[in-house]
Amino acid sequence: MEEIQSRALQFAIAAGLKPQMAYTVRQTALYSGVPRSTLYAEHRAGRLKFKTYGKRNALISVSEFDRWMNEN
Questions:
Q1: Three-class SS of residue 60?
Q2: Where does the record place the Helix-turn-helix domain (predicted)?
Q3: What is the pTM of this model?
């Protein structure tokens, strides 16, 4: 089995989520333990990038969350 390099992806799998390239804000909060309010605040401050779709939906890529974790 191939070793997973992404810390975010490792956390997501450990939390019982299937491997994906991006997760919703709610899923990211679940696997990381970072409150949704903090994720949104970091996004508003320009420190965490979301991919938005529709009016009320956002995804955070595992690579972006890894980058953010390494900087904080």
A1: strand
A2: 23-72
A3: 0.89
Tokens of 69: 């974790």
> To which residue do tokens 């390099």 refer?
5
How far apart, in whole angstroms, are the C-alpha atoms of residue 36 and residue 40?
6
For each of the domains in the chain, give its residue range(s) and CATH number, in order of start.
7-71 (1.10.10)
26-43 per-position pLDDT tens digit: 999 999 999 999 999 999
- For residue 67, the 8-state DSSP code is H
Q: How far is residue 47's CA from residue 32's CA, in Å, rounded to a whole number? A: 17
Does residue 58 sit in helix, strand or coil?
strand
